[in-house]
């Protein structure tokens, strides 16, 4: 199998598997980067090629302007993935990345007639649920949120220079997540699995269960012990959950 040209800006492929029958696209949380999914990429079997999305404004894309809304992010990710659609695509998004994965999967269905092999949404309430959130408007509130969710190394949050580097990208992501407005439409046709921690302050189990309304395909809800970043302690189980569906779809 030939590999499509790599979009160096948007796609990171840490462990290329050129003979894989399916691809898993991983989309990080607010303030996150493609490297967050390095362990997932490493743990996937040879049958699944992992593509990790890198948002602008961080790491090697630090000098690029941010995108602070979900529609623009979804459009750009959708365009970057088109060369990779020669094999079935499944999606795994955590937190903001879950909403983004949903919107990219919608674009693939509506514009290309391609149904995702699976959509795995983690730590995020369903698009049809709503909370009024303004964390992105407050410096102290944003830093405190990052501390409370335990998704960022506490030592980094105590380093003013590093904080100045990561805060703008994180704020842009939070703005994208908090100002997202779901546009009702036809449900997806793909299998959808919603995963969450049972003590996640950003999404109750009921809010996560509401993802069932967004697909006509099979739906499954998996609840793990833990908070917003529950997945750090349950990586093996999450990888097992994702492995079968993309492989079967291939």
- The strands making up the biggest β-sheet line up spatially as 1-3-2-4-5-6-7
Mean pLDDT: 88
Series of H and E elements: EEHEHEHEHHHEHEH
> Span from first to last CA?
14 Å
Number of discrete helical segments: 8
* Largest sheet, strands/sense/barrel: 7 strands, mixed
Principal-axes shape call? globular
Low-confidence stretches: none
What is the radius of gyration computed over CA atoms, rounded to a whole number of angstroms? 17 Å
Beta-strand residue percentage: 5-15%
In helices, the fraction of residues equals 25-40%
In terms of structural class, how would the helical and strand content be classed? alpha/beta
In total, how many beta strands? 7
Written description of the protein model:
The chain has a seven-stranded mixed β-sheet, with helices on both faces. The chain has helices at residues 38-43, 70-81, 96-112, 139-149, 154-157, 160-178, 205-209, 235-249, and strands at 11-12, 22-27, 48-53, 89-94, 118-122, 192-197, 219-224. The protein is globular. The chain has 250 residues and is α/β, with parallel strands linked by helices.
